[in-house]
Structures are given as C-alpha cells and as structure tokens.
Design goal:
- The protein has one domain.
- Strand 2 and strand 3 form a beta hairpin.
- The chain has 186 residues and is mainly alpha-helical.
- It is 58% helix and 4% strand.
- The protein contains 11 helices and 3 strands; from the N terminus they run αααααααβββαααα.
- The radius of gyration is 24 Å and the shape is globular.
C-alpha cells in the first residue's frame, strides 16, 4: 500500500460516510416539493364527492338569481367578479367545471377541523381538505354552496371583508334549493 493511500484512507472513508449520511438525511422542502404537494390529484373518494358537488353547484349557477353573486361581490380592485368571469369567455357553470380541484391535505388550513376547501384569491385552483367528502355526503346542498363560495375566490374575491360567513350566507340566499324557495323545507 502506498503512503499516499494510507494517508487518505481514514479521511476518505469519513468523507464518504458523511456523504452517505447527508444523502439519507431528510432535506428541507423546496419550492418544487411544495408545488408537487399542491398539484396532487384527489383520491377516488374525494374526487367523487367533488364531482357531485360541482354538478349540483353548476345547476345552481344556471339560475339568474344565483348568478347575482358574481355582481354582489368585487375583487380587490373593486371590479365585479362577473368581469373576471367574462375574461374567461364561458358561463359560470362552465368555468366551475374548468377549475381543478386538487388534494390539499398537505396544507396547514386543511388541518383545521372546520375547513373543507382552500383557495387563494385570483388563483383558478381549489384545494380539497379531508373533511369535504364527509360534508358532501352529510349535506350535499352545503357542499355545493361551499364550492360556489370557493369559485368566487378563484375569480378574485378576498376575505375580511367580507367574512367567510358573509360570503356563504350570500351564496345560500342567492342559490337556494328550489324546495326552500317555496318554504317547503327549513
């Protein structure tokens, strides 16, 4: 064995072990990791719940009274949400069908027990929290209302003001189920 090899043996083995340890160690999340976490498709159960809610919300958005939510609210620049929708060149129901609904389980807001869906104002994407499917099964009408609420956020509606409760109440009032409009249900 040459003296040079003997000198490098201990430090080189240590350096190699350190590289192996670094490669195996957990690494900090990168922006790419976060994008991938936000762009994960839904599992079959959540996807089915979203499709049912989107279908019901789309039917509601075909009614003239329900469509008024697009002029009831404005984006942060003071423009009615209808203007944002007009830029897409589609109806509200068509726009809703175009919005991707993705797995939001990695999001902090989704870990709160009362959050069903999460949207960043002006971003045409909705993140689905684990609780949404349960909400959709227990109260389909509420799930449809929540989907319309989040659609408004994708068109630029911020919050506080109006509060989340105010938005949901306005959607409920404008997009009533036909049986509640005649007083048949509470």
């Amino acid at each position: 064995m040459s003296p040079r090899y003997a000198i490098c043996q201990a430090p080189c083995v240590f350096a190699a072990a350190a590289l192996v340890a670094l490669a195996a160690a957990p690494r900090a999340a990168t922006a790419s990791d976060e994008r991938n976490a936000v762009n994960r498709p839904l599992n079959a159960f959540d996807a089915s719940a979203i499709e049912r809610a989107k279908a019901g919300a789309g039917r509601k958005l075909q009614g003239a009274e329900c469509l008024k939510v697009l002029t009831d609210f404005e984006d942060r620049e003071g423009r009615p949400l209808q203007e944002s929708l007009d830029k897409w060149g589609v109806s509200a129901a068509e726009y809703l069908r175009m919005i991707p609904f993705l797995d939001g389980s990695s999001q902090k807001l989704c870990r709160w027990s009362k959050v069903d869906l999460v949207t960043t104002p002006g971003t045409p994407r909705v993140l689905v929290c684990g609780q949404f499917a349960t909400t959709q099964v227990r109260d389909p009408w509420l799930a449809e209302t929540i989907v319309i609420h989040e659609m408004l956020h994708t068109l630029g509606l911020g919050e506080n003001p109006p509060t989340s409760i105010e938005i949901t109440q306005r959607v409920k009032g404008r997009c009533q189920a036909p049986s509640t409009a005649d007083g048949a249900q509470g």
